[in-house]
Amino acid sequence: MYRLYASQATASLVVHWMLIELGVPFEVEMLDFDDRAQKSETYLKLNPDGVVPTLIVDGAPVRETGAILMLLAERHPEAGFAPPAGSRDRAEWLEWMVWLANGPMAAYRLWFYDGDLPGLDRAALQAKLESYWTKADARLAGRAFLVGDRATTADLQLAMLARWSRNMPRPATAWPNLKAYVDRMRARPGLKDVHAREGVTDWIND
Ligand SMILES: N[C@@H](CCC(=O)N[C@@H](CS)C(=O)NCC(=O)O)C(=O)O
């Protein structure tokens, strides 16, 4: 049984979604950010950064969204959320997973938590985020998924990030290949399910 520490519609949503897609037993503890539950003494023992997600795997905490997704894909290879080790697609999947973590995930953290970097130039950060959407859009030209011919963890993460862009001057859906891709991902029952479970109603039905 996995135990996920999460908070509504945050980075933990993609791990929640992945657990649903895998069909494995799990429980979720929702932390209330308004109560600063993510900074409680108890939670900081599991996640010293005081952020979500944290996934308890075999009794031990695992942190970092990308790492958790890759670990889950590795532990449940039959579900096909990572290409087989040694394949060409595997190398591309690793590349995209690391790009997602270093690029858009890190930049969106600053977008939503600009106190992390006092003096941050938001216009420059917006341009950086848009450059990531341009890159993803180019990759998706003529492709259904970021890697290979089925959804991987990289697609789950990219779809979640697309929602995070919804209130930006140019959301991800302003790019044509991304718009078609996001619409396909939004049609997945697992994404609809996780939004319903977390009580998130915006964007999913746009
Ligand atoms: N690098 C971490 C970042 C996680 C993160 O920043 N999570 C946010 C929600 S999207 C959070 O927990 N924020 C609460 C806080 O910073 O107090 C990851 O990818 O898991």
TrEMBL record:
CDD domains: GST_C_Beta (cd03188), GST_N_Beta (cd03057). It comes from the Bacteria. Pfam families: GST_C, GST_N. Transmembrane segments: none annotated. Keywords: Transferase. One of its GO terms (molecular function) is transferase activity. Residues 1-80 form the GST N-terminal domain. InterPro entries: Glutathione-S-Trfase_C-like, Glutathione-S-Trfase_C_sf, Glutathione_S-Trfase, Glutathione_S-Trfase_N, GST_C, Thioredoxin-like_sf. SUPFAM superfamilies: GST C-terminal domain-like (SSF47616), Thioredoxin-like (SSF52833). Residues 86-203 form the GST C-terminal domain. The keyword Transferase applies. Belongs to the GST superfamily. This is Glutathione S-transferase. It comes from Caulobacter mirabilis. The lineage of its organism: Bacteria, Pseudomonadati, Pseudomonadota, Alphaproteobacteria, Caulobacterales.
